[in-house]
C-alpha cells in the first residue's frame, strides 16, 4: 500500500475497533442490551412478518446460528422475544418480538441514535456525510459480491428515526 492507502486503511480499521465498543457501552449502560441484541430486536421489529426463522435473522445479521441461538435464549429469558417451532419445517425455529421486547427497543432507540449522532454524524459536514454514504455504499456493494456473504445483509437503505 502507498501512504494514502495505508492511512485510509488504518483509519478504517481503528474506527471498526472503537465504534462497536462505544455503541455496546452506551446500549449496555442505558438499556442493558448489547449492540448485537439491539440489532436482533431491530431486525424483528422491521420485519413485515410477526415472526422470522432463526436462519433468516442469522442471514440478515451475518451471525452464526449458534451465536444467534445463544443471544435469542438470553432475550427470551428476559421476555423480549419468544421462540417457537416452525409449522412448515419442524427442524426450524421461529422468533417473534414480544410487546416487552418492542417497548425495550423503543426505549433504547433514542439513546442509540444520540450516540450515533454524537460519535459519527455530528463529526462530519454535510459534504462528508454524502461522501461517507458513497464510500460505504461502494464497500458494501463489493462485500455483497464476496462468496459467503449474505446478499441482503447490512443494506444501507432506509431511515433511522426516533420513534
Structure commentary:
The chain is mainly alpha-helical and 163 residues long. It has one domain: Orthogonal Bundle (Arc Repressor Mutant, subunit A), CATH 1.10.10. The protein has six helices and three strands. Strands 1-3-2 form a three-stranded antiparallel beta sheet. β2 and β3 form a beta hairpin. The longest helix is centred in the first third of the chain and has 29 residues, at 3-31. The protein is globular. The protein starts with a helix and ends in a 19-residue tail after the last helix. 17% of the residues are buried. InterPro entries: HTH_MarR-typ (IPR000835), MarR/SlyA-like (IPR039422), WH-like_DNA-bd_sf (IPR036388), WH_DNA-bd_sf (IPR036390). Residues 1-141 form the HTH marR-type domain. This is MarR family transcriptional regulator.
Amino acid at each position: 500500500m502507498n501512504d494514502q492507502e495505508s492511512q485510509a486503511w488504518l483509519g478504517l480499521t481503528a474506527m471498526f475497533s472503537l465504534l462497536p465498543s462505544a455503541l455496546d457501552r452506551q446500549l449496555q449502560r442505558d438499556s442493558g442490551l448489547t449492540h448485537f441484541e439491539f440489532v436482533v430486536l431491530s431486525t424483528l421489529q422491521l420485519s413485515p412478518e410477526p415472526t422470522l426463522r432463526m436462519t433468516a435473522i442469522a442471514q440478515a445479521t451475518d451471525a452464526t446460528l449458534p451465536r444467534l441461538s445463544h443471544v435469542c435464549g438470553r432475550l427470551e429469558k428476559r421476555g423480549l422475544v419468544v421462540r417457537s417451532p416452525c409449522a412448515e419445517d419442524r427442524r426450524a425455529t421461529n422468533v417473534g418480538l414480544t410487546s416487552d421486547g418492542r417497548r425495550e427497543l423503543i426505549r433504547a432507540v433514542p439513546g442509540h441514535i444520540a450516540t450515533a449522532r454524537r460519535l459519527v454524524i455530528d463529526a462530519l459536514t454535510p459534504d462528508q456525510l454524502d461522501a461517507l454514504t458513497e464510500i460505504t455504499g461502494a464497500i458494501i456493494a463489493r462485500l455483497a459480491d464476496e462468496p459467503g456473504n449474505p446478499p441482503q445483509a447490512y443494506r444501507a437503505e432506509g431511515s433511522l428515526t426516533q420513534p
